[in-house]
Amino acid sequence: MTRLTTRLILLLAAALGIGCQTAGDTTRAESVSELRVVTSGGFATAYRMLAPEFEARTGIRLVTEYGASTGGAPNSIPVRLERGEQFDVVILSRPALDGLTERGDVIAESRTDLVRSLIGMAVRKGAPVPDISTPEAFIAALYAAESIGYSASVSGTYLATDLWPRLGIWQDLEPKSRRIVSERVADVVARGDVEIGFQQVSEILPTEGIIFVGPIPAAHQKVTTFSTGITTRSRNADAARRLIEFLASVEVAHTVAETGLSPVALEY
After folding, report:
1. What is the pLDDT of residue 32?
2. What is the predicted pLDDT for the residue at 268?
3. What backbone phi and psi angles, to 5 degrees, belong to 133?
4. Which helix (H) or strand (E) covers residue 54, if one does?
5. What is the pLDDT of residue 90?
């Protein structure tokens, strides 16, 4: 083999090596970090508004699922984690998050409160709008309704197992009440399947075909904190922390407030 031939072979190998390296670099540049997120309905609207901005800023792709904070439905967050589904970040009510932490599903130090949420009432668009401005009017509206829908998650659990029994009216309301599993109460109201419905305000507002009557009276209200945390099975804890910092920041708080939630970031 002549020196010229050897030199040509080396040059060709070098060129191929450079080409392969460039292709590899391109592949690496195109591969984007990925986060798997599951959120309950209370924060879902705000999350959907903010997710594209986070992806554009960071290049981190969000793969999102939805489920209730509690209630035992197959798609509820605790059940999904219990059967081994992998997520990096969970967003749900604080008591449910604390329960997942005690169970070993969430890193305790990662827990971060995001928003406070109120329970609201909805009726179908075109239907008479009841007065619920006072505790007395609220109870009268419950008795006047032919059917009532309530969430299978935090707000509905409070109404059906705490407030209404405590007021001594659950025995009258229960026969005409329906616990709504795996869908928004407001969607059921919009279809006309129940006359009035109760759920987190942030879950009612985006629904078409309904009228948001208002939050239930302060004397009977329950404020729920929705929080987030990193799971113990997270494959990308650093990216998960970036997402949590973004969702909890003052910078996005006013966008979150537009969805009917009260951001914790604005409390300080």
Report:
1. 54
2. 75
3. -75, -20
4. helix 41-58
5. 98
Q: Rounded distance, CA 20 to CA 73, Å?
A: 50
pTM of the model: 0.81
Low-confidence ranges of the chain (pLDDT < 70): 1-32
Place of tokens 């970036």: 242
Sheet holding 210-215: strands in order across? 177-180, 148-151, 196-200, 119-124, 210-215
Tokens standing for 6?
A: 């050897």
Taking only Cα atoms into account, the Rg of the chain, rounded to an integer number of angstroms, comes to: 25
Alpha-carbon distance of 188 to 149, in angstroms, equals: 8
Find, among 153, 144, 132, the residue nearest to 215 by Cα: 132
Domains of the chain: residue spans and CATH: 34-116+225-267 (3.40.190.10), 119-220 (3.40.190.10)
CA 31 to chain centre: 27
pLDDT for the residue 73 = 85
